[in-house]
Amino acid sequence: MSVATHGPGAPGTPSEDRRHTENGRERKQQLVDAAAELFAANGYSATRIQDICRRAGVAKGLFYWYFPTKQELFAELVRSMRLQMRKAQAAAMDPDADPLTRIRQGTEASVRFNLDHAGYFSLLDVERADASHAALLREGSEVYLRDVVALIREAQDAGLTATADPPETLAHGVLGAVSSLTFAWREGRIDLPADELAAFVGAWVERAVGGSRS
Fold this sequence. Notes:
By secondary structure, the protein is an all-alpha fold.
């Protein structure tokens, strides 16, 4: 009589493979989270791989299993944060609302996300000057720009704007407002609660894009 080797959790079963995959994702995320904290506190250049491993509580060899270089880890952090921000924007936008309202809702979500992750965005302010990160960070800016351009075009097609300015120009204005005002908040030059600043920027953007339609 043979002994069953494929009961629940037995080696080689889908349930075990799934646990291994989940454990791997958890370990990888631990490294990303540790790097985010250390990069924000000490800067990218001053943070060593061994510092990240110590903070994450993993062996250095495991770092290289997931990331060939520290630059690759930084890229993973940037893309992970970009995805989280887009999810926050999508969650905040009412799919049944008109495009101008969705622009305001997405703007407010962007501001709140920026302020909730102030250390990360302060890190990006510094790292934009590093040529080795320029392409990666530009990639993110272009993603956000495309999202806003699509909404502005939709608003113009629906007759919700009083301006015929190019959507790309208006979209740069939207992103510039979010970037400039959240930067001023992080610098302590704007003294408003996060929700109030989000509402202010959202309303300002809605007026700027919609204009006077009377």
